[in-house]
Design brief:
Distance between the termini: 15 Å
Strand content: 35-45%
Largest sheet: 7 strands, antiparallel
Strand order of the largest sheet: 13-19-16-17-18-15-14
Helix content: under 10%
Shape: elongated
Low-confidence stretches: 142-152, 221-226, 261-270
Number of strands: 54
Structural class: mainly beta
């Protein structure tokens, strides 16, 4: 008789790439809802909802939580598939800070990074401008900005100018954004609408702005309130050119009604997705020796000839000159790297990455002196001072578009669908080079940088970039299963997201086409999967298990100073709710984020449908050296610490064994061995089962199909199996 002792069973990780019989003793052929934070396998805890209410009766697609220095408050934002942005209020409905009306088409936003004290929300159409949020609680209930009334003026200040207005909109506060046209005494101007953060509100008629100055020696003359508004989100400077080869008709058009020759815009189709206050017109030297100007496009009339109504107008007419159409950073993704904001995903340039100057105030021209004087600083000699620096990766017409960009301690990573590039250098001189063919990214929601390490998911696997190298963390473990899942990925429908908390990476994929995922079935899987969520232990470097009951549309690694690190998520299964995934991984839940109050996590998910720990050992459990490795599985002992504090405990683990490949009987057999029921005592117990089965393949399976609300421990520290090797003629 031989005893096989498996110390710390199932803690060696889930490895579906290898045949069951090739696994190490403590590895899993199948693993669900198993974690091993201290090297001992146990059932994961339950995840929670953050708060008690929905933000809105809508499907959420994005979530983030950040601390804002201007308002000195922490705010959770959520975004919806129909283009709304909400402040998440745990005890009440969400506060809408942006309503997608106008524009009236289906742009939606995902929060992607924090730059200069603002969350950057990227629209996912490559056309609509990014949004800036700085912590204001001002609601945008009308959908459009709320305008002030009367006349306004800028006091004479070298920085942080005071803005006076007859009456500001109700609720105007620091962290909101003030947008206006800045003109001189003759109502002339050289720049489009500029969006600036409100630093302070001194009274009902006076606010202080960030990044704007007036050095003219006297207050800016009173100006009408048209085009002036305050709202909880702001826009960026129109620093991306999407059409830069145009020439005006040369028939002395007025700048308030700018006409183009039919071919200039009709062929480009730029205004099919026209966004008021987003599209701008850059005019290069309207007359000989005059400064360049950029004006806001207020309305558009289809031609021929096409007509743009613009504001402001520095002069009445001008001759034939070159122009560009620019947009307010319509990035699908953004990242902060070496103190600069980077962006990508502009529809016209899918292989181009843009970068601004370090510490640039993105509401002002990239080439301006900070703070910016929109009245006096009107003599820019260089066209490039109006625009961001572009870097084509590797070329403008490459057939593999950029999916995402990620900051690292080394290069900026440029993740394409089938390759990875790095951008090296310092502003404004950069070069790009290929890091790897393959290892690409399938979904920007899967691309995150946490603590200097980049993570992303692609069709070929899941990757991390650390120490200057790409590491394929699925290879040899769950790579074949993952690749089978990705065959069901449908652009625009499916989603892959990742997040990190306490040395664990969580990866979730949802809304797959089940017609293509059949080869991803493992163990007890009976149907083609449409979603799956995994936990990866970054310290142990193993995939611990899948997570049941977790179909996440997007996740966010929450790192807020003074708060506990967390993972927030959103899911179509729980419309309008923010999910705190953290307790499922760490075993603790936060009841007060500001006070960092922690309690033990609940044993069940907030939705009440999980977890359910299931784990299978490898099938070479006997490690026999007899005839063809055949052995009789005599006895099994399972050591557990299963604590259920109820008066009549119900928490239970079912134990079964698998046997097959015998010399006399090749058939596979699953035998139910019995049930381990919890008790109220915190101790390690040993339950013994008489198995008495013969074969070459032997496997132990556990299934915790009952988890009560009073379950507090579910540990499995050891399994002991007793075998007798088979011999011929005996």
């Amino acid at each position: 008789m031989r005893e096989i002792v498996i110390a710390r069973p199932f803690a060696g990780g889930y490895r579906s790439d290898a045949p069951d019989y090739a696994l190490e003793a403590n590895e899993c052929a199948y693993s669900q809802d198993v974690i091993a934070p201290f090297g001992i396998a146990q059932q994961r805890w339950g995840w929670n909802f953050d708060g008690t209410t929905t933000d809105a009766a809508k499907n959420l697609i994005g979530v983030s939580r950040s601390r804002f220095p201007i308002t000195e408050r922490s705010v959770t934002l959520t975004t919806t598939e129909d283009g709304y942005v909400y402040i998440h209020n745990p005890a009440s409905s969400g506060t809408a800070v942006w309503e997608n009306n106008p524009p009236s088409y289906s742009a939606s936003w995902i929060p992607r990074c924090m730059y200069n004290g603002e969350v950057i929300l990227c629209a996912q159409d490559g056309v609509t401008p990014l949004l800036r949020y700085a912590g204001s609680t001002l609601a945008n209930s009308a959908g459009w900005p709320t305008g002030g009334t009367g006349l306004w003026s800028i006091a004479d200040q070298s920085s942080s100018p005071t803005i006076s207005l007859t009456t500001w909109p109700s609720g105007t506060e620091k962290g909101a954004f003030f947008s206006a046209l800045y003109t001189n005494a003759s109502s002339k101007g050289f720049f489009p609408h500029i969006s600036s953060r409100v630093l302070a509100k001194s009274s009902s008629t006076v606010i202080t702005l960030d990044g704007i100055r007036n050095s003219s020696g006297s207050p800016t003359p009173a100006t009408g309130a048209t085009g002036t508004y305050v709202m909880p989100v702001g826009f960026a400077w129109p620093g991306v050119s999407v059409w830069d080869t145009g020439t005006s008709t040369g028939n002395s058009p007025t700048l308030s009604q700018f006409s183009f020759s039919g071919a200039d815009l009709a062929s480009a189709g730029l205004f099919v997705d026209y966004v008021p206050m987003n599209d701008c017109l850059f005019i290069q030297n309207p007359t000989s020796g005059s400064p360049h100007i950029m004006v806001s496009v207020i309305s558009y009339t289809a031609g021929p000839p096409e007509v743009l109504n613009v504001q402001p107008a520095p002069q009445s007419t001008f001759g034939s000159t070159q122009y560009r159409i620019s947009r307010r950073l319509p990035f699908k993704d953004a990242a902060v790297h070496n103190n600069s904001l980077w962006g990508c995903g502009v529809r016209q340039y899918p292989n181009r990455v843009y970068v601004g100057p370090p510490l640039w105030d993105i509401g002002n021209p990239p080439g301006s002196i900070q703070p910016f004087d929109p009245i006096s600083d009107s003599t820019f000699a260089d066209v490039d001072e109006f625009f961001l620096t572009p870097v084509d990766v590797p070329s403008r017409y490459d057939t593999d578009p950029v999916v995402s960009i990620l900051a690292t301690p080394g290069p900026l990573l440029v993740l394409k669908g089938a390759s990875v590039y790095g951008i090296y250098g310092s502003y404004p001189s950069y070069e790009q080079s290929l890091i790897a063919n393959g290892s690409g990214c399938i979904d920007l929601r899967s691309a995150v940088s946490v603590d200097g390490v980049a993570y992303w998911a692609g069709r070929d696997g899941i990757f991390m970039y650390s120490g200057g190298q790409i590491v394929p963390i699925t290879r040899g473990r769950i790579e074949r299963e993952w690749q089978a899942l990705m065959r069901g990925y449908v652009d625009g429908t499916s989603c892959v997201s990742t997040a990190v908390v306490t040395n664990h990476l969580v990866v979730s994929v949802a809304s797959l086409s089940t017609s293509a995922t059949g080869e991803a079935k493992v163990g007890p899987d009976s149907s083609n999967p449409s979603e799956r969520t995994y936990i990866y232990d970054l310290k142990a470097q193993v995939w611990t298990s899948r997570i049941s009951n977790a179909k996440m549309r997007n996740m966010s690694s929450v790192r807020v100073p003074g708060e506990v690190n967390s993972i927030f998520a959103v899911s179509d299964d729980y419309q309008g709710r923010v999910i705190d995934v953290t307790p499922a991984v760490t075993g603790t839940k936060c009841t007060d984020r500001a006070a960092q109050t922690l309690t033990d996590a609940d044993p069940n998910d907030a939705a009440g449908d999980g977890p359910r720990m299931q784990a299978w050992t490898g099938s070479s459990l006997a490690a026999a050296n007899g005839v063809d490795g055949e052995a009789r599985f005599a006895d099994l002992a399972v050591t557990t610490n299963l604590v259920d504090s109820a008066g009549s405990p119900t928490a239970a683990i079912d134990v079964s064994t698998f046997h097959g490949g015998g010399l006399d009987d090749q058939a596979s057999t699953v035998v139910a061995q019995g049930t381990i029921t919890g008790d109220s005592v915190d101790r390690v117990d040993r339950k013994k089962f008489r198995v008495n089965q013969t074969g070459r393949l032997h496997q132990v399976r556990i299934d915790m199909d009952v988890t009560s609300a009073t379950t507090t421990k579910t540990q499995i520290p050891e399994i002991t199996a007793t075998f007798r090797d088979s011999r011929r003629m005996t």
